[in-house]
Amino acid sequence: MRLRSLLFVPGDRPERFAKAAASGADAVILDLEDSVAPAAKAAARDAVAGALLTERLVPLFVRVNPIDTAAFDADMTAVGALSPDGVVVPKAEGAETIRTVVRRLELAGDRSAMVLPVATETPAAVFRLGDYGGVTDRLAGITWGAEDLPAAIGAQTSREEDGRYTAPYELVRSLTLFGAHAAGVAAIETVFPDIRDLGALGAYARRGLRDGFSGMMAIHPAQVPVINDAFTPAPDAVAAARRIVDAFAAAPAAGALQLDGRMIDAPHLKQAKRLLALAGESV
């Protein structure tokens, strides 16, 4: 499943579901957690269940409530048997959280929904970012957030005055990136909160691609084209990657090759294959 962009939409706003599906996002996240007030959660579950029962124009993920809450049990009862394409798990704390979600899905009869943990929202979660490898073949990726964690530790903010993350949250972002790659799954960048500054969003998303993220979450449909563009490699980069892959395919016994006047070896081949995968091309 290609996940350049994942667009959140509040689960209690069904009138927005069609617009979200038509945004161009690779997946839509129907939210039952933070964007839904407690009094509206029951109605949100009904709306999300209804969406899962209709024809899907785009993969539908559902962000459930944390696994240690009664709301999580209600969420799984409402949607677990309806085969969402994925479940976004807030406040995940390593492999055991994922096992719990997978067990609940299987008890509901679901054998296919992917699981995407938001893996940095508690202090304990930060120390579990290396735990996700091998836990399940249903892991869609790992993503992170910079909002709940500051609140959990009493920090005043996660950002400098110019919008950059402060040092603790740059560290958390980096650990998420490496944790995802260690687990062999997609690293998904967190949301960009300023929905008006699309230029800054583009710069942020391109930084994510540069650093090794393969997609990003969005909170407004206008952000989706910018994110998709940032995480879609340029044609010349795709052509260069294809040349590297083809060169090694033509010389399978070679450890290193000369191409266009420079030496290439296994790391170049790995980077080229990753870029082709990001472009949605076969390797």
TrEMBL record:
<dbReference type="Pfam" id="PF03328">
    <property type="entry name" value="HpcH_HpaI"/>
</dbReference>
<dbReference type="InterPro" id="IPR005000">
    <property type="entry name" value="Aldolase/citrate-lyase_domain"/>
</dbReference>
<comment type="similarity">
    <text>Belongs to the HpcH/HpaI aldolase family.</text>
</comment>
<feature type="domain" description="HpcH/HpaI aldolase/citrate lyase">
    <location>
        <begin position="4"/>
        <end position="221"/>
    </location>
</feature>
<keyword id="KW-0479">Metal-binding</keyword>
<dbReference type="GO" id="GO:0008816">
    <property type="term" value="F:citryl-CoA lyase activity"/>
</dbReference>
<keyword id="KW-0456">Lyase</keyword>
<keyword id="KW-0460">Magnesium</keyword>
<protein>
    <submittedName>
        <fullName>Citrate lyase subunit beta/citryl-CoA lyase</fullName>
        <ecNumber>4.1.3.34</ecNumber>
    </submittedName>
</protein>
<dbReference type="InterPro" id="IPR011206">
    <property type="entry name" value="Citrate_lyase_beta/mcl1/mcl2"/>
</dbReference>
<dbReference type="InterPro" id="IPR015813">
    <property type="entry name" value="Pyrv/PenolPyrv_kinase-like_dom"/>
</dbReference>
<dbReference type="InterPro" id="IPR040442">
    <property type="entry name" value="Pyrv_kinase-like_dom_sf"/>
</dbReference>
